[in-house]
Design goal:
Blueprint: E1 2-10, E2 13-19, H1 29-36, E3 46-52, E4 60-66, E5 71-72, H2 76-88, E6 99-101, E7 104-110, E8 116-119, E9 140-142, E10 145-151, E11 160-167, E12 171-176, H3 185-193, E13 203-211, E14 214-221, E15 225-227, H4 231-243, E16 250-255, E17 258-263, E18 273-276, E19 279-287
Parallel strand pairs: 2-3, 4-6, 12-13, 14-16
Antiparallel strand pairs: 1-2, 1-19, 3-4, 4-5, 6-7, 7-8, 8-18, 9-10, 10-11, 11-12, 13-14, 14-15, 16-17, 17-18
The structure holds the ligand N[C@@H](CCC[C@H](N)C(=O)O)C(=O)O.
The site of ligand LBFN2T5F has 20 residues, from helix 2 and helix 4.
Length: 292
């Protein structure tokens, strides 16, 4: 089977986007993995499948699969690329959209400067929302929030990190580091992402606070590895920093692939807004391996 695809990127987080508005392709996890493969396929961190409206008042639905083939709930950079895609393809003429994802309804808006702002919904900090197993753990209160100790490796080794946990539709564990460039992202990222306390696994963020309006971030993503940028990771890190009293409500988050601007009032019922770039890289057609 051959499929048409669009390769896109948002702050260096890259995507294969599939138009399923006229029919579902019914791809298997192995076929998503093939598309994401940088040697044998197209190459991407995530595959985005654009589908028609599932309900009144909703413009589209889009599905997100990580490079490992697993379906996930939310993707911030993907949301901006999704919005750019449906406009560029003439699938809508609207600037503001309401979109169903597995992680809830989000609302992207194309801005006159070519960027996209997304209402990403409310951040949640309850361990049950990730889920995060807190049995036998003692949280450390800080600001309006909590940090949790997470033991890495064998308990006897004594290695542990303090994390803030945030659900942005998908799960995030954020830790503070002095210098994001020398942070052990490749070493401890996989240990956190696959930690037994996170039943659905987790995205592991490493944030350096530069000043109250500026942070630097690297994210070891669940189902992918370190990416050049993570939109939900930036929202989660900013929300955690704001709630902990370390950041102001308007924050620039710099990642290796680019900058996102995040704004959140700090009120539990208010949405996080994320603004950043979204661009098409190329389009093509590829033959998929058959399902076994
Ligand atoms: N890159 C994304 C997040 C994609 C999903 C994530 N890896 C997960 O498993 O939850 C973003 O920009 O938010």
């Amino acid at each position: 089977m051959q499929v048409l695809f669009t390769k896109m990127q948002g702050a260096g987080n890259d995507f294969v986007v599939l138009d399923e508005t006229r029919g579902c392709l019914g791809l298997s996890a192995a076929q998503y993995r093939f598309l994401a493969d940088r040697h044998f396929g197209v190459g991407a961190d995530q595959i985005l499948s654009v589908r028609p409206s599932p309900a009144p008042g909703i413009d589209f639905e889009y599905l997100i699969h990580n490079a490992d083939g697993g379906e996930v709930e939310q993707c911030g950079n993907g949301a901006r690329c999704f919005a750019r895609f449906v406009r560029d393809k003439g699938l809508t003429h609207k600037d503001s959209l309401r979109v169903q994802t597995r992680g809830g309804v989000i609302a992207p808006r194309l801005t006159p400067d070519g960027r996209v702002t997304v209402d990403m919904g409310c951040p949640r900090f309850d361990p049950a929302d990730l889920p995060f197993d807190t049995s036998d753990l003692q949280a450390m209160p800080r600001g309006a929030a909590q940090q949790w100790p997470l033991a890495l490796g064998a308990a006897a080794s004594g290695a542990s990190v303090w994390i803030a946990i945030v659900a942005m539709g998908n799960p995030h564990a954020v830790q503070w580091v002095d210098d994001v460039d020398s942070a052990p992202v490749q070493q401890t990222g996989p240990l956190i992402a696959n930690h037994a306390r996170f039943a659905q696994r987790v995205n592991a963020g490493f944030m350096q606070i530069v000043d109250r309006g500026h942070a630097r971030l690297r994210v070891f993503e669940r189902g992918v590895g370190e990416t050049l940028a993570c939109g939900t990771g930036a929202c989660a890190a900013a929300a955690a920093g704001i709630r902990l009293g370390l950041l102001d409500p308007e924050v620039h988050v710099d990642m290796r692939g680019g900058r996102l601007s995040i704004s959140w009032s700090g009120a539990a019922a208010d949405s996080v807004f994320m603004t950043g770039p979204a661009a098409t890289v190329f389009e093509g057609r590829i033959e998929l391996p058959p399902n076994p």
